[in-house]
Design goal:
By secondary structure, the protein is mainly alpha-helical. The protein is built from eleven helices and six strands. The chain has one domain. A two-stranded antiparallel ribbon has the order 1-6. A two-stranded antiparallel sheet has the order 2-5. About 45% of the residues are buried. It is a multi-pass membrane protein.
Length: about 325
């Protein structure tokens, strides 16, 4: 993290270590997200998505040629990411004081989506709880790629619950982790790569090779945050069951990061997720995750509550750590 030149309350009276500043920035960004949610218009990630789509259409013209497709996938990823990352680096190292601080808060706020996650999840749980299955199908189709029309009521609840747990890792905890580790460039890099993975990381003929570099990069960036998220879920729920499900079930899951997160989350909640799921190409056979009751509307709300408790735990622990560091004067700057 960059050392921060903030105005002192009185000359020489404000001494903050950079870790404490980073934790406070995360806390403020979480508060802004809770109050304002995601921007409804002109979200930077939407613009980035349009830019990435143009690159993909221009470069992904020979999807069947492995070497060419892989090479152009790497090129497209770099061309998409580097201009935005360069801007983040400039903000990190050229700005100072309160302008720097506001840019940092805005960056973390725009990278995470805690309130947006809750809005999507509650749209499904509320519809299920009131018996409006048609609306529940539509709502779940907005957050998962499954064939919503082929889902049972339990399937709808499972899909939404899995999405809450997995996106809690991707869109919340990973953003906090990368900001704390590498500042604005870190959280920007993670969010852009994660967006490209969501757009190109499919095992379809068109994206099998072209999207591989983005998908593998996302796996690397999310490896440690995913396991910290899984451990957080385990601590805040049925710990013994969550750890056992993580150990025994996660290795069989396709994704090296989603497996630990969803297995631990399902175990923490005491429900059974995973299993066969309908997609446009047919039924995908998936491993069972968790153990216990079948998922319901309540499961979705419980998954959201688990994510929210996890965020509060992270901020509390980080704040205590930062205050200890501050008390000992490690890394302090005036």
């Amino acid at each position: 993290m960059t050392q921060v030149d903030l105005p002192a309350i009185e000359p020489g009276s404000l001494v903050l270590n950079t870790f404490l500043v980073a934790v406070l920035i995360c806390a403020v960004a979480v508060g802004v997200d809770r109050l304002a949610g995601e921007p409804r218009r002109l979200h930077p990630l939407v613009g980035f998505g349009h830019w990435a789509s143009l690159l993909e259409q221009a470069l992904n013209t020979r999807a069947e040629e492995r070497a060419r497709s892989l090479g152009f996938g790497v090129l497209a990823t770099l061309v998409a990411v580097l201009p935005v990352l360069s801007l983040a680096l400039a903000f990190e190292y050229l700005l100072t004081g309160w302008l720097w601080l506001m840019i940092q808060v805005a960056g973390v706020w725009l990278a995470m989506s805690l309130r947006g996650l809750a809005e999507h999840g509650r749209a499904v749980s509320t519809a299920l709880a009131t018996g409006d299955e048609a609306r529940a199908r539509w709502a779940v189709s907005q957050i998962v790629s499954r064939d919503a029309n082929a889902l049972t009521e339990e399937g709808i609840a499972a899909a939404a619950s899995e999405s809450m747990l997995e996106n809690g890792a991707d869109a919340v905890f990973s953003s906090l982790f990368w900001y704390l580790l590498a500042g604005l460039p870190g959280v920007v890099l993670h969010r852009l790569i994660n967006t490209l993975d969501a757009m190109w990381g499919y095992r379809s003929p068109r994206y099998l090779y072209f999207g591989r570099f983005a998908a593998r990069s996302d796996d690397v960036l999310n490896w440690l945050p995913a396991r910290l998220t899984a451990f957080t879920y385990a601590l805040l729920g049925n710990t013994r069951l969550a750890l056992r499900c993580w150990r025994e079930q996660a290795p069989a899951w396709d994704s090296p990061n989603a497996g630990p997160v969803m297995a631990a989350g399902a175990g923490a909640l005491g429900v059974q997720l995973g299993g066969p799921a309908p997609y446009a190409g047919g039924i995908k056979q998936r491993s069972v995750l968790g153990e216990g009751a079948a998922p319901s509307a309540e499961t979705i709300d419980n998954a959201l509550a688990l994510v929210n408790r996890g965020v509060r735990l992270w901020l509390a622990v980080l704040l205590v750590m930062a205050l200890v560091v501050q008390g000992y004067g490690w890394g302090a700057t005036a």
